[in-house]
Amino acid sequence: MSEETAAKEAAASGAASKGGPTIFDKIISKQIPATIIYEDDTSLAFRDINPQAPVHFLVIPKHVDGLTQLSKSEPRHEQLLGHLLFIAGKVAKQEGLDQGFRVVINDGAQGCQSVYHLHLHIMGGRQLTWPPG
Ligand code: TR5
Fold this sequence. Notes:
Bound molecules: ligand TR5
CATH class: Alpha Beta
Strand content: 15-25%
CATH architecture: 2-Layer Sandwich
Structural class: alpha+beta
Mean pLDDT: 86
Radius of gyration: 15 Å
CATH superfamily: HIT-like
């Protein structure tokens, strides 16, 4: 069974995915509204509900929950990771972030992750500072 078929069956049955369902699963299934600015078969981009910059959106995979799960998984996930970054750049351009932007992945407790479904933060539209807190 393909990853996508498994995810569809899990969603249809209401079963939890490996890491347990998160709010982002409900955004993917359109149970909860979000301002979606890009979508394809494997990824979704939507505006962050609590923006930290004039432009702040998230890019998520539809069928994989976590970076750790993903990086320990099959080599084809390398392609998915590349795709997410590619989409981050594509949507950043679509959003007019010509002067630059930041891509962040918070992973795990020390990474300050709050939603346990892999997501790339893309922030721009103002001068950002470094290092982050
Ligand atoms: O802290 P991490 O890196 O896990 O980032 C989680 C991000 O999800 C935060 O920047 C939140 O503001 C964002 N977030 C949380 C919710 C949410 C959202 N972005 C869009 N729509 C959201 N809905 C509908 N519900 C959330 N709980």
